[in-house]
Amino acid sequence: MKGDLFANEFMVQAAVAPGMSVQNAKSIRYVVDGEMMARQGAMIAYRGNLQFERKGQGVGGMLKRAVTGEGLALMKVKGRGEAWFAQEAQNVFVVDLEPGDVFTVNGRNVLCFDPTLSYDIKTVKGAGISGGGLFNSVFTGHGRLGLVCEGNPLVLPVSPQQPVYVDTDAIVGWTADLRTSLHRSQSIGSMIRGGSGEAVQLMLEGEGFVVVRPSEATPQKPQQH
Questions:
Q1: Span 144-198, pLDDT tens digits
Q2: What is the three-state SS of 156-178?
Q3: What is the pLDDT of residues 67-77, one digit of tens each?
Q4: Residue 183: left (phi > 0), alpha (psi -120 to 50), or beta?
Q5: Of 46, 123, 128, 121, which is closest to residue 82 (Cα–Cα)?
Q6: Are 210 and 156 in contact (CB under 8 A)?
Q7: 7, 128, 182, 204: which has the fewest C-beta neighbours closer than 10 Å?
Q8: What pLDDT score was predicted for residue 216?
Q9: 3-state secondary structure of 212
Q10: Is 85:111 a contact under the CB 8 Å cutoff?
Q11: Of 65, 60, 85, the residue nearest 75 (C-alpha)
Q12: CA 149/CA 87 separation, integer angstroms
């Protein structure tokens, strides 16, 4: 059989190393030899001897999810084989975390990660419930984290001289040494008159990087748990 569909750019080649790698702009390949973690429903294909198990969050995790609305509906993939992950044809990216690194990321952008990474759901400092309740997942450890983003993300350097202001619906994540607070860019009078629709942003200060998606968030589809 011939045709453009069978060109080398689409054909999956043999794996060269275990672990996570970018298969193409829209999917991540994971060569499993033991176990790994992924968001529920994100597996699009696999081969080999793999088992997929829903990961329970425990009582504490369930309470956090109920209160914050943030949480990772995860599954554990165990065995030996290869699996491919994607999320609604969004672009995929891989972040390498080393010991001491801390990366805060919105749960909607997490696709899969190494089992050597751990995460916790935490309140965004300076925002809290008064800012609509901003909560993110904080990853630590040594390993790789696969992310999805609608379009190509913007990675903005933040310095003490130049803080960055981000729409709370567009933010993907940021590095550990940044301080967060809510910033109001409109006066009360302007808001009463209708305003610009961009009244409040998340301000990030310090030294590091912030990752932003090139669009505001769209409503999430309900997940099956």
A1: 999 999 999 999 999 999 999 998 889 999 998 899 988 776 544 444 444 444 5
A2: EEEECCECEEEECCCEEEEECCE
A3: 334 456 889 99
A4: beta
A5: 46
A6: yes
A7: 7
A8: 65
A9: strand
A10: yes
A11: 85
A12: 9
